[in-house]
């Protein structure tokens, strides 16, 4: 764990986050400044700065979880699709590998990569989205989201 890394602090439980999924190697939580409600970040619990740093043995499990979350986000948020992306260093606001999983709809207003970020209306609104995603992940995978 990198003590100054915000995502490592979330993974260790030192900093609170709206966790939607957790297993032995990854953690997924709602972005606190989402493009749309349901925008999740998937991180490895161990600190790796970029995709190139992720060990070979973790690539399969990491992306299996990204696939699980992409489907769960689409289903839970009743979206038409999703945007799944990784920034490596450039535009990486936290230098810890993370995958953005964003629900998308036709004509949702996103153009290119210059997208306005928003906030949840309240903590309760964020909790409702988190709970909906947790239930969908559990139904799709049979895995417990291990809520914090």
Which key features would you list for this structure?
single chain; alpha+beta; HIT family, subunit A; 18% strand
Explain this structure.
It is a single chain. By secondary structure, the protein is an alpha+beta fold. It has one domain (6-141): HIT family, subunit A (2-Layer Sandwich), CATH 3.30.428.10. The chain is built from three helices and five strands; from the N terminus they run H-E-E-E-H-E-E-H. It has helices at 6-11, 56-76, 123-141, and strands spanning 19-22, 26-30, 40-44, 81-86, 99-104. The chain has a five-stranded antiparallel sheet. Helix 2 (56-76) crosses helix 3.
In short:
The chain has 148 residues and is an alpha+beta fold. It has helices at 6-11, 56-76, 123-141, and strands spanning 19-22, 26-30, 40-44, 81-86, 99-104. It has one domain: HIT family, subunit A, CATH 3.30.428.10.
Number of domains: 1
Structural class: alpha+beta
The portion of residues forming beta strands comes to 15-25%
CATH architectural label: 2-Layer Sandwich
- Provide the succession of SSEs: HEEEHEEH
Q: Examine the coordinates and then state which fold CATH places here, giving the name of the CATH topology.
A: HIT family, subunit A
- Low-pLDDT windows of residues: none
Radius of gyration: 14 Å
Basic shape:
globular
Strand order of the largest sheet: 1-2-3-5-4
Number of helices: 3
Q: Tell me the CATH superfamily.
A: HIT-like
CATH class: Alpha Beta
Got a strand count?
A: 5
Largest sheet: 5 strands, antiparallel
**Helix percentage:** 25-40%
Distance, first to last CA: 19 Å
Rounded mean pLDDT score: 91
